[in-house]
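Readers of this paper often ask what the protein records in our data store actually look like. This encoding replaces a full spatial description with a residue-level series of whole-number codes. For reference, a complete record is included directly beneath this paragraph.
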Amino acid sequence: MPNGLPRGLRAEEIIRVFERAGGTRRSGKGSHINIKMPNGQVVTIPAHGEIKVGLLSAAIKKAGLSVEDFLSLLRR
């Protein structure tokens, strides 16, 4: 697990975690979802399948969360 992130997380799980962190879901282009975070950044997640660890790690950083914060929100 690079950076302590689990593999095989589905897009809907990740989107729900960002919403729990205060993000607002917006429609994106094609099969992508944009999430506007409280820090003003917009995180784009493909809305299908499993998300790779590198993309997830970059999205967490852009959202202004730590890996620990993300994992605690995931477990809720």
Notes: The mean pLDDT is 92. The longest helix spans residues 53-63. The domain at 2-75 is CATH 3.30.920.30 (Metal Transport, Frataxin; Chain A). Helices lie at 11-20, 53-63, 67-75.
